[in-house]
Amino acid sequence: MLRKPKVVVIGGGTGLPVVLSGLRDRNVDITAVVTVADDGGSSGVIRNYINVVPPGDIRNAMVALSGMQSLELDVFQYRFKSSDQFFAGHAIGNLIISALTEMKGNVFDAVQELSRLMQVNGRIYPVANEPLVLNAEFSDGTVMSGESEITAAHQVIKRVWVTTEDHHEPMAVPEVIEAIEAADQIVIGPGSLFTSILPNLMIKNVQAAIKRSQAEVVYICNIMTQKGETDQFTDADHVRVLNDHLGYQFVDTVLVNSEPVPADYINFKAWNEISAPVKHDFQGLRAQNCRVISANFLRLRDNGAFHNQTMIVEELIHRLQGVR
Q1: Contacts of 106 (CB under 8 A, 6+ apart)
Q2: How far apart are CA 67 and CA 132, in angstroms?
Q3: Per UniProt, which keywords does this protein have (predicted)?
Q4: How many other C-beta atoms can be found within 10 angstroms of the C-beta atom of residue 50?
């Protein structure tokens, strides 16, 4: 029997589930590696009150890979209204993940147990078994801690790194390292460059595992720039930041959208985190020794610009041809 190609998807935020749900029913062995540095919204409140790994990105990854019926998933994703003061803004899934973390004693075991209950097709690994703190140095030399505070500062980010809350060296769980080393393809993004993607890559044993891995590293470049993170960035700037943070040119292939975003379509009030379409710099990409795949990866919906899940996944599967 031919083995399934092993795909590791690294990220967080809203971009990760797009890739995961598209791969779920394809003939691939999926591992999702999810950031644990989020400190905003429901995840941040839960993190502060009961000192668990922020559950929101894990919850969305679970829904993306789950084989449960839509009603059960809708209940898991249900977020209490703001008028429900005690539970205001919390998603039921966040509370379940937090409760299981207390029951099991750690988030990794909690997620594995819940993955079985939710019929997850693949594996979901929090990148670390404890909450991580994201730190940033801005171009003016100032330093700030906290994912939501860094984004809200709207300054030019020079570099980011992660620490644990008690300031020891962050380490990824062994299962994450084993998955990366065994992967045929490592997919990074789409997602917030500094606050969803890099927190995973700033863990030293993750960096070492990627360097040892023989897998093709595919970066799915964002379609729009993000306020407070990547204002004015080209696609080459995104790749440069990734390579600079790891200290070598590790991105093998980059997927960039070639379809123009209609200037009058985007509702920037509704989608207030984005600022403008990412500009192309193919010369800058080639200078970083990465293969560039430029195609119409755009999906317009709800007056916003998103990745076309079908086109992205088809390209990822195409790149796996011959891997058995």
Answers
A1: 129
A2: 30
A3: Cytoplasm
A4: 11
Q: Quick one: which of 307, 305, 65, 54 has its CA closest to 189?
A: 307
Residue-number span of the structural domain to which 173 is assigned: 6-38+123-319
pLDDT digits (tens, 9 = 90+) for 262-296: 989 999 989 988 989 999 999 999 999 999 999 99
What six digits make up the tokens of 199? 């927190």
Find the CATH number of the domain harbouring 260.
Answer: 3.40.50.10680
- Burial class for 257, CB neighbours closer than 10 Å (0-12, 13-18, 19+): buried
Domains contained in the chain, number: 1
Does some domain include residue 253?
yes
Question: From CA 318, how far away is CA 266, in angstroms rounded?
Answer: 31
Question: What's the rounded Cα separation, in Å, for the pair 60 and 73?
Answer: 10
Tens of pLDDT, residue by residue over 185-232, are 999 999 999 999 999 999 999 999 999 999 999 999 999 999 888 999
